[in-house]
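Tutorial handout. Part one gives the primary structure; part two gives the three-dimensional structure as tokens.
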Amino acid sequence: MKTSTGLKWGLIFGVLFAVSSTALYYTLFIYPQLPQLQQYYYHEILNSTNGNVTEAMKYSQELPIFLPFSLLYLDLISLVSGGLLAGYLIAKLWNKSPHWYMKGLMGGIASLIVVTFLLGFIVASVGGTIIYTTSCVLMGLAVSYRLNKLENKSVKKD
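Part two.
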């Protein structure tokens, strides 16, 4: 299996899983707590600006706007990096293991290690652990499954 093919599918599935896991994590765990987060953020800014109420109000009102995009940015960096590593590892291990799902699990675990290093504060929560562990393992399996389908297609052509 060519490494470039593994990297390409790792990138594609990395972006796909980053967007979907961000949407799921934000919807289930961040959005319900947004009023409390805004209040906490308001008090933190109020304390750091020595009682400037207008600044604190302005920044706390912007929280629902920049928080989802900040999470998406961090997820894109970490899950795309993890997807690239998973695709590279799966392509390198292609001839060493006979089963596509074993290669996918190895790629998913490697992706989870990268995501844990880059998003440790999110993965440390219970919801983050569930969502990002599942995303990484499914991403590794998806890359491996797709590479297996491409390999089977090229074998049938020959």
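Part three, for discussion. The mean pLDDT is 87. The radius of gyration is 20 Å.
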